[in-house]
């Protein structure tokens, strides 16, 4: 049986890779996609989600979420993802807006989680604003969540600042709320997403794999500018590969305290301990990951 | 026509005085009462709200809200309000639990605000957790709010700490979210609630004014212990008197920045400026206030 | 016998009033004047100290201290004190630079304190940079200090920000170091310096009292612009009046925690307790203070 | 000609290795050793410095410095270095206390620096309290410092906390003062000190190298408990090897902002930039380093 998941996302180029991989996985059942402001503004991330589903001809419901962090002002990453959020890629068809639900992301997350037959896995791959509001506004939902597998944070280092990863930096208060719950969290942070960077050659290979491969590669080639050509991190994709190929990853338990103010705002202070609720991905089989990357979009 | 208001409250002895005054005012129409953890835990504040309405024979819907601040751990003030929150007062009847709505405070606030024919006035007299979550989860509600008249903060001084008032100290992140909106806020803070303290003699007078006066005075006499007998602050009552007798108060516009961390957490840094969205109550007609206090519960 | 004191100062108009009052008091023996950056830069505050002593024909040694706070960047108050620090007053004679000691303020403070026959009273009326460095670099000096009588801080309110007084705001880390010692500190903060504001009429009276009165009044009339004409705070003067006329003041013991970062930086969080090392001036005989002000510069 | 250096130190086991290496280097001329509280209290670190010099029969002047950080309370690392600071090693002779100067570390640092014929290199291998006080109390000394080569901080990671290295964590305010100067700083942080960890076998080899090797190895074997036997970091030794064998290290320029409060206190936020005043050691020739370690104490 497929594992039911909900993706909370700010597409974003690596979000597109992750969502696509999830939608075509035979192990995952994407119940809902919720959007959040992050890489670009909420109107763009929502449009990108709808555009992608229309392109992929997948009828997954989408709910629009928060455009602003809980307390901080929004800071986007359009220098990496382009003004639209998907580089200079142009989706040809008009987006199928009938996929857009009436309720906002928090209301629809609640509905989807509370009505699910089995506990749901949340896959947040943007700032954690929607998820934090969900847990505070509808705390009963926490009972029906199996696990959170998220992209965000780092045991060491950062990309938005020297000590903070972008998704956490963008809304550190929301991150603090999520990490402070007792829910099981798998943290695919920079520790593993940088390690599993793919090569420019891998992207070329994907580009030849049909119109989906071409779309993914086209976007990544835009985003490559921010990386070395020997290691292009497709951050968000790690969450989906963790779900479908957990054997590729090594995790270690920790408690994670999020810094919400000052020079280190967004830093995920990671105290490794057997009692921690966070399973930090600290290592991965890089070769197997790259092989997965170059085959995942091939047959679809 | 009566002014439609919603009271968000953590009863709490002064909350009881405020709610009672509001319910019997011919100028106010209480549409909804929402509860929040604060003076005591959420289960007690909710029971106290229902007990009070049952005692007063008023059929106002109640919705239960958040028991925990957004990010901080809960700290109650049961040393002031007693373990139950209403001192050692015992309500005799069983609470009329049919008044309790199914939706939580945030959902019911949204319904009440969005369905109101005219913009509603919010009257938060506890920590601002529910209101902050409302604005972040359902930002559309901000459009149908006329004004927020709240008890909390201080331009100078504090009671939870030397520089922080209890309601703001209890959930400074929520307070920051609320003060950072552009909604008109009337801040009845310690500046005015301490100034308008009543005397022990005033309370004795109220005690003779029927069973409602007796109930109010009984509770206040418990709570007097925390004050000088010449000036017992009935903090939350100031909001209702501001709404019914605005001529008793003098306000000054300001922007208010809430400190969320460190030694001064909960401090409301008040920058007076004509452009501010906050109308800080800085002075009051104390004699008229005391006269109002000793007459408000008399005829009811 | 006269009480030996050392004044650490950033003249500054009210510093001039305080230093002059101290030099002509028959109760005080000014052993040393040390300068610090504050109201204006260190070169100006040092020149002003020398100019004043030359004008008053007093041979008191002066040592030049720190121009920069411990950690923060310097912020002056030249909008209040004028670019030179003494309004638009012009001292006519060249300053007697022979009064300037070779050692810096910290070295000379140490010498003066360690060589004093009886414990010395420190009177800091500027940012506490020099004093903090003294205590950390030469901790043995703390043993020969009788008391610190300082101008700075506030139990409630602020002037540099709504919650911070200028001297503390200017170097909060230094203030924290000083307040965290176990030395007896008398804090003449805004609580009492605002209360004891003099009237414009009082200043006119002083202006007729010889060349010294004329000098003091001339400066204060420049500085009046920042105040109401009914209450012009001569902040630093309070320390000298506290030393010469302690009966005019009421104090209350407290521990004072200084906020060093964020929105409330420079706030002196004042926890009143009988065990506190800080004696906060909370009240004063205002009429007697004004009378003192109008007579102190008369006979000299 | 030998390069004049001053070592500021909190011995500490790795301090002993570093000081010893410096004293026997034909490239370095150790002018002064100043002590500071850190690994253990100031009385122990000073005794350890004297004990070591007595043992090594080296007549280097020692000045005792600060026992307490600028603002924080002291936190030692005696769990790593033992209660005495040198593990369970016992120096046999009484320490030669005639080496101890009368002035404190700050005063003696000033003297040594100002009287030096050529600009001096400072080598701080403990918390930066003395150095920060030197720069604030005697800012003129900054002009005669060639370079600071320090052990402390990390571009990524920590040991006192997940994001803070011990020397910086112990006195973050002092570290901020030092890093905020414009002096050239070589930062031998955890990035390189962990990389250059030696093996237990290397330590065994040193143990056979005369009484000095035996002493060094004896101590390190105590301290090994805190490390893997394949990589025992002799942190402070990196500074001396940087000075004597700079070709073994690779550096990259950065500005370093030190976090002084909150969860990430002591974190050295490292912004790599060509304009930075800090030369962060980011890589080293590990084999050459280990070879140096096993030969440095051999001939002496
Ligand atoms: Ca993303
Ligand atoms: Ca209340
Ligand atoms: Ca002054
Ligand atoms: Ca050391």
TrEMBL record, chains A, B, C, D:
Question: What EC class does the entry list?
Answer: hydrolase
Transmembrane residue ranges? none
* One annotated GO molecular function: hydrolase activity, acting on glycosyl bonds
This enzyme's EC code(s): 3.2.-.-
Query: What superkingdom does the record give?
Result: Bacteria
Keyword Hydrolase assigned to the entry: answer is yes
Cite the InterPro entries for this sequence: Inosine/uridine_hydrolase_dom, IUNH, Ribo_hydro-like
Q: Which Pfam families match?
A: IU_nuc_hydro
Record domain Inosine/uridine-preferring nucleoside hydrolase: where: 5-290
Question: Which PANTHER family does the protein's record reference?
Answer: INOSINE-URIDINE PREFERRING NUCLEOSIDE HYDROLASE (PTHR12304), NON-SPECIFIC RIBONUCLEOSIDE HYDROLASE RIHC (PTHR12304:SF15)
Q: What is this protein called?
A: Non-specific riboncleoside hydrolase
Organism, by scientific name, is Virgibacillus alimentarius
């Amino acid at each position: 049986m497929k594992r039911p998941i909900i993706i909370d996302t700010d597409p974003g180029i690596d979000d597109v890779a992750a969502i696509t991989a999830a939608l075509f996985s035979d192990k995952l059942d994407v119940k809902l996609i919720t959007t959040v402001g992050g890489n670009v503004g909420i109107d763009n991330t929502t449009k990108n989600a709808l555009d992608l589903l229309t392109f992929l001809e997948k009828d997954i419901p989408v709910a629009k979420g928060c455009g602003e962090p809980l307390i901080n002002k929004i800071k986007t990453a359009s220098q990496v993802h382009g003004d639209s959020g998907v580089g200079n890629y142009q989706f040809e068809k008009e987006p199928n807006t009938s996929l857009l639900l009436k309720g906002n992301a928090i209301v629809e997350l609640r509905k989807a989680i509370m009505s699910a037959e089995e506990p749901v896995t949340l896959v947040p791959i943007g700032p954690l604003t929607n998820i934090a509001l969900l847990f505070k506004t509808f705390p009963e939902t926490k009972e029906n969540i199996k696990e959170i597998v998220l992209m965000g944070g780092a045991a060491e280092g950062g990309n938005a600042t020297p000590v903070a990863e972008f998704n956490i930096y963008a809304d550190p208060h929301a991150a603090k709320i999520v990490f402070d719950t007792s829910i099981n969290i798998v943290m695919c942070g920079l520790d593993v997403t940088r390690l599993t960077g793919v090569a420019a050659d891998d992207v070329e290979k994907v580009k030849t794999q049909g119109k989906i491969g071409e779309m993914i590669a086209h976007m990544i080639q835009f985003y490559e500018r921010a990386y070395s050509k020997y290691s292009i991190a497709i951050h968000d994709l790690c969450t989906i590969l963790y779900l479908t190929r957990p054997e590729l990853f090594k995790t270690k338990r920790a408690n994670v305290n999020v810094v919400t103010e000052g020079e280190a705002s967004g830093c995920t202070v990671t105290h490794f301990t057997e009692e921690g609720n966070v399973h930090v991905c600290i290592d991965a089989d890089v070769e197997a990951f790259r092989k997965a990357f170059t085959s995942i979009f091939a047959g679809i």
